[in-house]
Design goal:
By secondary structure, the chain is an alpha+beta fold. 36% of the residues lie in helices and 39% in strands. It has two domains: 86 residues, Translation Initiation Factor IF3 (2-Layer Sandwich), CATH 3.30.110; 105 residues, Alpha-Beta Plaits (2-Layer Sandwich), CATH 3.30.70. The protein is built from four helices and eight strands; from the N terminus they run αββαββαβαβββ. The strands form two sheets. It has a five-stranded antiparallel β-sheet. A three-stranded antiparallel β-sheet has the order 1-8-6.
């Protein structure tokens, strides 16, 4: 029985010892560490526009009523212009008193109320942005923020950028190894990193009135850059 236990203990020790040697060899291995970067240009396929209706009046009720009428007109116009894949929703609403500083009394005095209703439009019809902006400002909207351009399928472009990053790192490792007179054995560590694509923002502006014969506001989105990077550690000999 003692002999049997001793053989099990010896076998266990040999296994642990072999693993320790393997780890030690990895720790003592010569390595080459390289970075790679990949970029993909993508045309935006979606835009977000913040459209606001701001009303001011002497009383809160008058400001609310005026804002409600104008917002209804703006919403109806937006819905008539956007497609089935587009959406419009309220992103914020605010009623606030308006104070002006009276130089004579040296005090701030209540002069009225301001009501703001903020809508956000998501649209894939990028060719119609100028018309959408001009038409809504013509029926009551008086502040436009954006548009903000983005891409819907980010994963596709991220994967393409990552492939380019890995290739870039591999090419760098190959050239470096050849120049140094060593050869690459295997990959020991690989760390990918995605950089979130930054949306493109167009200018924000205010318009109180648009002439009926004015052409649509020109909107140009440009390209969005999707990038990825990778850090690879190779074992060399």
């Amino acid at each position: 029985m003692f002999k049997y236990r001793f053989m099990i203990f010896l076998l266990f020790a040999l296994v642990i010892g072999s693993q320790s040697v393997s780890y030690a060899q990895d720790n003592n291995a010569r390595t080459l560490n390289v970075n790679g970067r990949g970029e993909v240009k993508a045309r935006p396929d979606v835009a977000y526009i913040n459209i606001s209706v701001i009303s001011k009046a002497k009383t809160a009720q008058a400001a609310l009523q005026d804002n409600a009428n104008k917002t209804t007109n703006v919403l109806n116009k937006i819905k008539s212009l956007i497609g089935k894949e587009d959406t419009v929703k309220t992103s914020g609403f605010n009623l606030a008193p308006v104070y002006d500083y009276n130089q004579a009394t040296k005090k701030s005095e209540l002069t009225g109320y301001s009501v703001s209703n903020h809508l956000i439009v998501k649209t894939v019809d990028l060719d119609n942005l100028g018309n959408l902006i001009d038409t809504t400002t013509g029926v009551g909207a008086n502040r436009i923020n954006g548009p903000r351009f983005d891409i819907l399928d980010k994963d596709k472009y991220r994967k393409d950028a990552l492939r380019l990053a890995v290739k870039d790192a591999k090419d760098t490792a190959t050239v470096t190894a050849e120049a140094a007179g060593v050869s690459i054995v295997r990959i020991m560590q690989l760390n990918p990193n995605y950089n979130n694509p930054q949306p493109i923002y167009a200018r924000s502006y205010e318009r109180m009135k648009v002439a009926s014969d004015q052409s649509s506001t020109p909107i140009e989105s440009g390209d969005i850059t999707v990038s990825a990077s990778v850090n690879i550690t190779y074992q060399i000999q």
